[in-house]
Specification:
Helix content is 37%, strand content 25%. The chain is built from twelve helices and 16 strands.
Length: 329
């Protein structure tokens, strides 16, 4: 029997606080060598602006999760088809037998685990007194990013900037209900950056969404949007050069993250500018922040270890709460 777990099931059992704790352990396992995770193959469907990615992983140690996520990003989904930009499905397998255990909605899981990953990074990299957040983008991912940051820091003020102001206004109304912080629309990208202790970029932009010179000392950046290769970036070379850079995976980011690939190609930085992987920071091998004055930048392209670790916990919680539908394949 295979358990089919829907988005509604996920919403009932998966909290951001628990997801952050799960991924903190998963990245620790990554740092100590208990993860097997090949670089994901992708298929581009250029004429419709679509990308399909296939993401397998085995996370051993305390977690012991095996599975694969199939995820798609199709540019026109929200405007033409009334579908989310990102769609996904996770297949969870028994690590002892390989038998399928669950089929899980991957859209909501992806949004939650990506937010949670930034929550882990923020916990270790942002200043302890960080309280103002500037968010770029106003989609679902921007929501979970902010929820995660608010789990690990006492956030009092949030600004959001989106090229579609109406989207930013809707975002503010929704997030104001979810948080005790004040949430307002920024009138410009520069206004969004100025005074912010934490910057979150969660967009589909192919060009930098702010200028690195606008950053104040001590700022932390979570860059989780635009990737999949050279020439596509949310964060410009000057910001990257100024920052202590931590990534989810060196190998994956050097293949997929234009934010890093482009400044390396342009000679602004070298590969050695990548200070650490997040797992190294979580495991205590390196510090996420050395001084309160430095700028820190966490770049994430998303890893399968996040999906399968989250999926296993969701499967356990669904069984505890009698959720999901059992089917015979």
């Amino acid at each position: 029997m295979v358990l089919v777990i829907t988005r509604k099931d996920l919403e009932r059992v998966l909290t951001m606080k628990e997801n952050i704790a799960i991924l903190e352990e998963a990245f620790r396992e990554h740092a100590i060598g208990n993860v097997k995770m090949p670089i994901r193959p992708t298929i581009a469907i250029e004429d419709v602006g679509g990308t399909m990615a296939y993401m397998p992983a085995y996370v051993g140690g305390k977690i012991n999760a095996l599975g694969i996520k199939v995820v798609s990003i199709f540019r026109d989904n929200p405007t033409k088809y009334n579908l989310p930009l990102i769609l996904g499905t996770v297949l969870l397998n028994d690590p002892k037998t390989g038998a399928p255990l669950a089929i899980i909605d991957g859209g909501y899981l992806t949004a939650m685990r990506t937010g949670a990953t930034s929550g882990v990074a923020t916990k270790y990299m942002a200043r302890k007194d960080a309280e103002t957040v500037g968010v770029f983008g106003a989609g679902v991912q921007a929501e979970t990013q902010l929820l995660a940051v608010a789990e690990v820091r006492e956030i009092t003020n949030v600004k959001v900037f989106d090229v579609i102001k109406q989207s930013a206004e809707k975002y503010c109304a929704k997030m104001q209900k979810a948080l005790s912080a004040k949430v307002t629309v920024a009138n410009s990208a520069k206004e969004n950056v100025e005074g912010s202790d934490i910057i979150v970029t969660a967009t589909t932009s192919k060009q930098p969404v702010f200028q690195g010179e606008w950053l104040k000392s001590g700022t932390h950046i979570n860059g989780i949007g635009s990737h999949f290769g050279a020439g596509i970036k949310e964060v410009d070379g000057s910001a990257v050069k100024r920052a202590r850079v931590v990534v989810d995976s060196r190998e994956a980011c050097l293949k997929e993250a234009g934010d890093l690939i482009d400044p390396i190609k342009d000679g602004l930085i070298s590969e050695n500018h990548i200070y650490a992987e997040l797992g190294e920071v979580v495991a205590g091998k390196k510090k996420g922040r050395i001084t309160d004055d430095e700028i820190t930048f966490f770049k994430s392209v998303g890893l399968a270890l996040e999906d399968v670790s989250t999926a296993l916990r969701v499967f356990e919680l669904a069984k505890q709460h009698n959720l999901g539908t059992s089917v015979t394949l």
